[in-house]
């Protein structure tokens, strides 16, 4: 939602709210870390980029070419609003 870019730490913070955590096997998704960092990258749904700076490796994720072709921002907003049981109009939740 932020120009199609999210830091790895914010991604996991957000997914944790949905009960999806790194290094914790999920009953539907299996290994979520492997699913996102390897499988979604391999299928071009996301691009994973190492961010320079700091002592530890940090990554950010961007929409991949396949996601750009298959999804619109409106579809993502609709999905997120369903998750949070909120109706959206352009620019504003209701």
Give structural attributes.
Melanoma-associated antigen G1, globular, MAGE_WH2, three-stranded antiparallel beta sheet, two-stranded antiparallel sheet, 4 helices, single chain, MHD_dom, MAGE, alpha+beta, 94 residues
Q: Indicate the structural class.
A: alpha+beta
The average pLDDT is 84
Report the radius of gyration as a whole number of Å.
14 Å
Q: Percent of residues in beta strands?
A: 15-25%
Give the helix tally: 4
Uncertain runs: none
Q: Record the strand order, biggest sheet.
A: 1-3-2
The biggest sheet amounts to: 3 strands, antiparallel
Elements, N to C (H/E) = EHHEEHHEE
Amount of helix: 25-40%
Shape: globular
- The count of strands amounts to 5
Distance between the termini: 18 Å
Structure description:
Residues 1-86 form the MAGE domain. Pfam families: MAGE (PF01454). This is Melanoma-associated antigen G1. InterPro entries: MAGE, MAGE_WH2, MHD_dom. The chain has 94 residues and is of the alpha+beta class. 39% of the residues lie in helices and 20% in strands. The chain contains 4 helices and 5 strands. The strands form 2 sheets. The protein has a 3-stranded antiparallel sheet with strand order 1-3-2. A two-stranded antiparallel sheet has the order 4-5. A hairpin with a 2-residue loop joins strand 4 (88-89) and strand 5 (92-93). The two termini are 18 Å apart. The model has no long low-confidence stretch (mean pLDDT 84).
């Amino acid at each position: 939602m932020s120009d199609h870019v999210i830091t790895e730490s914010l991604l996991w913070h957000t997914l944790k709210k949905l009960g999806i955590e790194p290094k914790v096997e999920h009953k539907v998704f299996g290994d979520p870390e492997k699913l996102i960092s390897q499988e979604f990258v391999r299928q071009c749904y996301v691009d994973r980029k190492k961010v320079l700076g700091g002592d530890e490796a940090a990554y950010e994720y961007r929409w991949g070419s396949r996601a750009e072709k298959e999804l619109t921002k409106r579809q993502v907003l609709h999905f997120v609003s369903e998750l949070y049981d909120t109706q959206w109009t352009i620019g504003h939740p209701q």
